[in-house]
Amino acid sequence: MNDDVDAISRLVFAYAERLDAGDLEGVADLLANADWRSDRRPGALRGREEILGAFRSTVRIHEDGTPSTRHVTTNLVVEVSPGGELACARSYFTVFQARPELPLQAIVAGDYRDRFRRRAGTWEFSEREVRVALVGDLRFHLARPIERAEPAGDEAVSVRRDSGEPGRGGS
Known about the structure:
It is built from 3 helices and 9 strands; from the N terminus they run H-H-E-E-H-E-E-E-E-E-E-E. By secondary structure, it is α+β, with helices and mostly antiparallel strands. The chain has a single domain (2-168), classed as Nuclear Transport Factor 2, Chain: A (Roll), CATH 3.10.450. It has a 6-stranded mixed beta sheet, covered by helices on one side. A 3-stranded antiparallel beta sheet has the order 7-8-9, with no helix packed on it. Helix 2 packs antiparallel against helix 3. The chain is globular. The termini are far apart.
């Protein structure tokens, strides 16, 4: 089982490494057979192309080909099912960023809730849920402000974090 925990841990950390390298295609490859959810948008993104499109339209890639970030993942706990074909994990993340116009600082923090399945002997993501707890200066990381999706009857209502004004939809 330690091999399973190691393999799943490598997937969790590979997400951060690929994102920080500006390898959005690599991030989408990791999530190709997964649902990606966030408390900042209603619904789920499903599959490689949908996830890649969302990351390309959201994450700012700077002149060096990266988002100028470091996603630090901590407090990782992995639990493998007794049958060894399913697993879940939870962890915290803190994203640091530094730019010529922005001193080094934490810009967002929260936690990941992940699910995995073994397919053809190899572990893969089946779901990643991102829960944002703390938001700082995201001007140089995201192409648009993040919002929190809140259920309100039959539709989602969002509140812009930068202005506090209610709006419809999600980021």
